[in-house]
Each structure stands twice: as structure tokens, then as C-alpha cells.
Amino acid sequence: MKKKLTIFAIYCVTFGAITACSDAQPPNVMQSQDCWLDGINGNTALAVLSKPSVLNFTGWAGDSTVEKSPQSVSIQIIAAKGAVVASANSNSMTARPDVVQASGKPEYDKTGFKISLDGTNLVKGEYGVSIAIYRKGSALFCPTPKKVVIQ
Description:
Blueprint lengths: L1 H14 L13 E3 L3 E6 L6 E4 L3 E8 L11 E6 L5 E7 L6 H7 L8 E7 L6 E11 L2 E13 L1
Parallel strand pairs: 1-9, 3-9
Antiparallel strand pairs: 2-4, 4-7, 5-6, 5-8, 8-9
């Protein structure tokens, strides 16, 4: 339930200016479990300490609703109250044969990403990280257990 509320809060913050949010989750916002954030600044820990700087993210994300490799993904930095405070896109997906082998889904051949995000304006604190896949008319969010702690 908490995960669904977090995703809904992300949707409200991200798309709130375009549409009004209600208590029901909009049908064009979906959740995926087909993703993983391998590392932040090369560190694979669940919580990564950093100074305000450029943050480098690596991982993979598959569009589980249609079982395809996405054309692009976005990394979102989420504040404690659910607001998206920074984001960056990747328009280039890379080969991940390990994901194809582990998932048994040959359609996930181009699910890898490397994204650099400008985190120089992030204030001290702990932030969640989410992966978003946008496509025509909908958004697919994949929350991760990873945290960035800005010192």
C-alpha cells in the first residue's frame, strides 16, 4: 500500500499541473517490478553517501506491461514527502544480455541505461530513487530500494 501511495504521489507531483489528482490512481500511471538500479556513482550499496554533485546511475528497466525494452527512461530523485526534486533522462538504451538470461525475456535485450543527473542543488538529506518509463499517453514507474544521502 505504501508503495502505491508513493507512486501516486510521484504522479501527482509530476503531472499535477496538467491534471487534477484524486484518491483513485489514474489508469495511465502503472507500476513495474522489471527494473533494477545497479549503482549510484559506481556504488552498489542500498544507501549511497554523496556531496551535492553530478550523480551517475546505472541499471536496467523493462516495460513489463508490454514486455519490451523501453526507448528511454528517466531517473527521479524523490524527497521524503514524495516530491520529485530532480530528474534526468536517458534516450539511449544499451544491451543487457544478463537481464535477458535472468528474465528469460529476449525482448529485454536493450534495457540498460547510464544516466548522469545534476545533483548540485540537492540539500542535505536522504532521497529515494525511482525509474520512470514514459510512453505515449502513460507513465510506468519502478520504485527502487536505493537511497542517495546528501551530506
